[in-house]
Amino acid sequence: MRHCNSRRRRRIRWSRRASIIRQLGSRYSERGDAAEATRYGSQAATIAEAAGAYDAASAASTVLYETAADLRDDVSEAASHLSRVALNSARCNNIEMQLFAAVGKFELAMERGDDGDAIVAQAELENFDLQYSSHIVSEAFLAAQVLRATWAGDFRRAYATLASSADLQWTADRSALRWAEIATYATAAGLTDVGRRAAISALRKLRGAPPSLRGTRAKILCSLAYSLLGRRKQARAILVRACAREDCMSARLEHLAIAVDHVASFHSGAANYGEVIMAIDRLHQHNFGGLARMLEALPTPRLRVTAAAASCWIALMSFAGARTTQTFLHGSTARAKPTPERLQSRRYSPASLHKCAEPGEVRSRSRSEEFCGASSH
User: Fold this and answer.
1) What are 186-203's pLDDT values in tens digits?
2) What are the tens digits of pLDDT across the range 89-146?
3) Does a structural domain hold residue 152?
4) Range with the lowest mean pLDDT among 5-9, 60-64, 155-159?
5) Residue 147 resides in a domain
6) Domain end (from 234, 249, 264)
7) Dihedral angle at the C-alpha atoms of 129, 135, 140, 144, nearest 10 degrees?
8) Coil, strand or helix: which one is 356?
9) Please, how many CA atoms are within 13 Å of residue 175, restricted to the half-sphere of its CB?
């Protein structure tokens, strides 16, 4: 009995210590200091796990997860910490933390555009009684679920699902991102007035918000919405502002900005098929498959088979060869070769392609040069 009481007191003591350290990590995370947040979060999780205080360990792991996802924009690292949350919450039967892990797993699967992981995560979520007014479900689950609807081109349903959730977000940058998502989906669905007002709301929210990666993502989506509205000049200006701060830009967001810029040029009438293909492929490679599939599903103007389009198509097939053909055909060799119309509507993974430039010319540039040097249409 004495031995059990001693172990219990020791676990309580170390659990309290881990909680204090976790709170420090959480404060650094709120301030945007990823290094210190990771250091204190790791210490807290290690101490709690060693003491068998799995409640405290799962809470500390959420700090690591949020730091990786929100401050580092590292999907792989975030998934690793999320697995730790799931393991520790299962050990202590903490239902709230188990729900957090399940929702996070589903969100990351949607972020990557991974149908297999999404099905597994959704099956886990069926074990929970989801309350859509809760922060966890409203911010992550709804947005991820709606993103899947956009892959099928159902932008009206995506807009209708998210329309009333912007006011449920508890920080300015989260609210701005939700408004930006609403603006993009509404505009793609043809609800131009609604989309314009939502984009304005997103930009207003960002005026009083501290700079963040989430805010940069919101600006990029607002730029896409303005492009779909046909306001290319304003869209370009928003995109340039989004990329102006290096401390609020990650490699993934840089690829997203480039992709949005190329897609916007295409919607403005440019025959930049090769650029769009390469940009979308890079999104898939950098765990942005969810938004890549959304961009592929956008309603596009009727393709014009021009000399530039033909040149890009020839360059595409000559550089990518059989591998690209297999990718476009989704593994089937029995169907006909892909046409320019299919290029804009399928997933792309021609990893060895160079960027298509002017007709007959292929050049390779750095990501920054590619974005900053892109012409405005």
Assistant:
1) 999 999 999 999 999 999
2) 999 999 889 988 988 999 899 999 998 888 888 888 877 766 544 566 656 677 888 8
3) no
4) 5-9
5) no
6) 249
7) 60
8) strand
9) 18
Is the same domain home to 286 and 343? yes
Residue that finishes a domain, picked among 41, 71, 93: 93
Question: Is pTM beyond 0.70 here?
Answer: yes
DSSP-assigned letters across all residues of 40-78: HHHHHHHHHHHHT-HHHHHHHHHHHHHIIIIII--HHHH
Total residue length of the chain: 377
Q: Does position 154 have pLDDT exceeding 50, yes or no?
A: yes
Distance of alpha carbon 377 from alpha carbon 374, whole angstroms:
9
For residues 236 and 338, state if they share a domain. Answer: no
pLDDT score, position 311: 52
Question: In whole angstroms, what is the distance from residue 243 CA to residue 188 CA?
Answer: 23
- In sequence order, what DSSP letters do the residues of 7-49 get, joined into one string? HHHHHHHHHHHHHHHHHHHHHHHHHT-HHHHHHHHHHHHHHHH
C-beta separation of 371 from 258 below 8 A: yes
Structural domain span for residue 32 = 1-93
Domain membership of residue 112 (yes or no) is no
pLDDT at position 144 is 83
3-state secondary structure of 269: coil
The mean predicted confidence, pLDDT, of the chain is 78
Please check whether residues 366 and 261 belong to one and the same domain. Answer: yes
CA distances for 339 relative to 54, 320, 346, 374, angstroms = 55, 15, 11, 26
- Distance, in Å, from the CA atom of 311 to the CA atom of 313, rounded to the nearest integer, reads 5
Separation CA 273–CA 355 (nearest Å): 10
